[in-house]
Amino acid sequence: MMFDAQGNAMRLLPWVGESGTPCYLSSDDPGSRMSRLADEVETDLLDSAQYVLREARSLLAETGVGTRELRFTGVRLAESLQDALRIAESRGYRLAPAVLTHAEAGETTACGAGPLAGTSEA
Fold first, then answer.
1. What is the pLDDT of residue 91?
2. Domain chopping of the chain, boundaries
3. CA distance 71 to 109
4. CA-based Rg of the chain, rounded to a whole angstrom?
5. Per DSSP, what are the bridge partners of residue 16?
6. Is the pTM of this model over 0.90?
């Protein structure tokens, strides 16, 4: 779990704010409504990443795949990797407590709403 400058517990959420900055949840309760929502979004994003990887492998095994298909697949893979890395970072913070510096705390966005339109942009 991460902590802000005031000592409040902060959880890195699996989505970003409108400006692309990380969103954090200030809550000591892993069973809170927002914590449960974040857990559900993490699960959905990881399931989606597994699907994208499976489909990408299938596409890459084909011969004669066009540039548009490869580009689309690459973009989806990059999005999935970005989501998975954010989830890994969040879970890592919860396993090994760390403290946000004042600069890091100022760069974050407190987001109470859900994820922005599904996955992040690559």
1. 87
2. 2-110
3. 31
4. 17
5. 22
6. no
